[in-house]
Structures are given as C-alpha cells and as structure tokens.
Specification:
- This protein is α/β, with parallel strands linked by helices.
- About 40% of the residues lie in helices and about 15% in strands.
- The chain has an 8-stranded parallel beta barrel, surrounded by 5 helices.
- α1 links the parallel β1 and β2.
- The structure holds 2-phosphoglycolic acid.
- 2-phosphoglycolic acid (PGA) binds next to β8.
Length: about 250
C-alpha cells in the first residue's frame, strides 16, 4: 500500500526562529485537532535548520524531516557542499531532488541527478524526485514525451530495490509559485501516465506502491479536490507550507 504524503518545501525562506515557530504552530494544530489524516508529513527546511527542526518535531508521529538538495559526492574537498550521509546524520529521512528550480538555476541535468539519487539512496535517504513540463512544452502537446524522458533518463536506471525508496513529485513548471494550479483532471492524467511508465519500467506492483505527489500552487482550497484523484497521493507544497493554518488544512485534506 502506498503512503499519502504532504511535504512542505520551504525553499530559501524563513529564519530559524521563524521556522521553529511555524513548526510548533503546525504540530500543535495537528495534535489538537486530532486530524485523523492518513498523511505522513515531511518538512523540508533549509540545511542549517534541519537538526533543530527535527528535534522539535514529536517523535513517532506522522512528522519527518527532509532536505531540499544534496551533493552527488560522498565526502572530500567540495567546499560548500552537503553530503547525503551528513543529512542522514542530522535526522533527515527524505531529500528533494530534481526540483525545477535546481534544474533551471543550477543547471542540474539528468546525469547529475542520477548521481545524486545514488548518493541519497546509498545514505538511506528517500528521494522525492521531481518532474514536470514547462508551459511551452504543454502548449506544444509534448507533455507526455517530456515526462517520459525525464523518468527514463533521470530515474529508471535504479534497481527495483532502489526504486522502492523513491517518491515522485509531478510539478508542472507553469504552476509553481504562479497561483495557476493544474486542474485535478490535468494532474490525474499525468499521474496515471507516470504510474503506467513505472509499470513498464519495473512492474505493476512497483507502480501500485509508488507515492506520486502533485506540486504547483497547491493550497488549502484546492488540496482536497486534487488529493481525491485516484493517482494523486499527496502534495509537495511551496508557498502554502509557510503558513501554519494553510499547511495544516492541506494535511487535513486526506
Ligand atoms: P508552490 O511551490 O506550492 O509555491 O507552487 C511548489 C514547489 O515548488 O515545490
């Protein structure tokens, strides 16, 4: 059975005191309101806050900590880099890889992402691997070809055992931070397509067990509708993960 997940990607926002206050509001609301949500919650703050946030989260509950990136290198003279093993050692369980902002602004390509995936899996982290098309690609009716290539080149080189650890996030670039959410039908269509590709590359069981998140202007108003789609197993939330009420509402949308 695949898990439902709501992940908050803080990106490069908030100071540590602001982050700690946000997490305490969210955990209080989730506990107080006994949400009954079936979702696991992954908080992805900037690197320097991971340890402090992890310590503040209630243990044994639905809360987990994730990073927004990691190095493809294991260790050594790589000034400014953070390895997967370092992340694991401060309590991190997940790492976002292949976010469109990293692909675009930091020129991360499929080859580099393949190495990062290996590094993350080698350290016991669960990658949240992002794919998604630009508006131009969608308007040219090339969305499926594009997503299929991203999956093949970036992800499907993994062994069955490695792939078992992966969460996929479908994030259409035109929906990220724009307030322009994909309709639930558009999201479902691509999610079902991704699941089909997994069944081809691996097998039906792997496809059935893979959590596929939707990301891109997902908020407290549209989460329930998006999450009700059969192949949408949760969300990767940017802007709305910075507001405790909104993020808690999204968690409660399951
Ligand atoms: P958004 O970002 O929710 O602000 O659109 C999503 C993401 O980039 O992961």
């Amino acid at each position: 059975m695949r898990q439902n997940i709501v992940a908050g990607n803080w990106k490069m926002n908030l100071t540590l005191p602001e982050g700690l206050a946000l997490v305490s509001e969210i955990t209080n609301m989730v506990t107080d309101e006994a949400t009954g949500s079936t979702a696991q919650v992954v908080i992805c703050p900037p690197f320097p806050y991971l340890s402090a946030i992890d310590k503040q989260l209630p243990q044994g509950g639905p809360f987990h900590v994730g990073a927004q990136n990691c190095s493809q290198k294991e260790s050594g003279a790589y000034t400014g880099e953070v390895s997967a093993k370092m992340l694991q050692s401060v309590g991190c369980e997940y790492v976002i890889l292949g976010h469109s902002e990293r692909r675009q602004y930091f020129r991360e390509d499929d080859e580099l992402l393949s190495q990062k995936l290996k590094a993350a899996l080698g350290a016991g982290l669960k990658p949240i691997f992002c794919v998604g098309e630009s508006l131009e690609t969608r308007e040219m009716n090339e969305t499926f070809d594009y997503i299929s290539k991203q999956l093949k080149d970036g992800l499907f080189h993994l062994s069955n055992e490695e792939f078992d650890q992966v969460v996929i996030a479908y994030e259409p670039i035109w929906a990220i931070g724009t307030g322009k959410t994909a309709t639930s039908a558009q999201a479902q269509e691509v999610h079902a397509f991704i699941r089909e590709q997994i069944a081809r590359a691996y097998d039906a069981e792997a496809a059935e067990n893979t959590t596929i998140l939707y990301g891109g202007s997902c908020n407290a108003q549209n989460a329930r509708e998006l999450f009700s789609q059969p192949d949408v197993d949760g969300g990767l939330i940017g802007g709305a993960s910075l507001k405790s009420r909104d993020f808690t509402e999204i968690i409660k949308s399951f």
